[in-house]
Design brief:
Pfam families: Phos_pyr_kin. The protein is an alpha/beta fold and about 280 residues long. The chain has eight helices and eleven strands. Strand 1, helix 1 and strand 2 form a beta-alpha-beta unit.
Amino acid sequence: MEEDCRVLSIQSHVVRGYVGNRAATFPLQVLGFEIDAVNSVQFSNHTGYAHWKGQVLNSDELQELYEGLKLNNVNKYDYVLTVCDPVLGDKWDGEGSMYVPEDLLPVYKEKVVPVADIITPNQFEAELLSGRKIHSQEEALAVMDMLHSMGPDTVVITSSDLPSPRGSDYLIVLGSQRRRSPDGSTVMERIRMDIRKVDAVFVGTGDLFAAMLLAWTHKHPSNLKVACEKTVSAMHHVLQRTIKCAKAQAGEGVRPSPMHLELRMVQSKRDIEEPEIVVQAAVL
């Protein structure tokens, strides 16, 4: 148990489902971390549904919450987990589009990324942050080096459209970690994972991935391979259980709805705590 390890999680919150803080808090608590959750958004449900209601906190309201923690001297944290992982955009059918206004990109590049220890961009986000396109594994590694030079010691490109030797049914995840050895030299660890695609649209998987990667890199600070294998394998178990339950609820021949595809987190507690490794990472 990580009884003395405290995390401040600043993310969205939904009443129903596992997105944002709900997707991050449960796995971190299961893995032994103390969590203080600040809800930047409070919605009835995630925005994958047809309708949602709720509130969005502005910067002054967020600051007020933090000031309350500070006044009581309970604002000492080992980690801060935010939605800036970074959430910038993604590719759909080969075309990239941004989730946020383009004028926020310099803010991410100049203020957010330099103070981060770990970032988990997708390929499109990595290209935006570096200003370079990725067409090969070598180019992806070069982009990760650029991202390291901006500040973060751990960079994981969570999905890419690079071709996998296993075929078009697989996505490629690439990871890079920069560590300092006792003699002061820099050690680099690079890994690659080929992950089978899932024919479903989930919401909250990025939040879950970031939370579990934080936990497992804390527990395995000098072994990115193991940290990524545990993170991705746990994700696999959660998603497979979610799909199985969703199909059963939707009925034969009916495509599951967003309600059916809410992540089965509580049911996956044991897989989150002690994931059976079903996706291996190759050290590059």
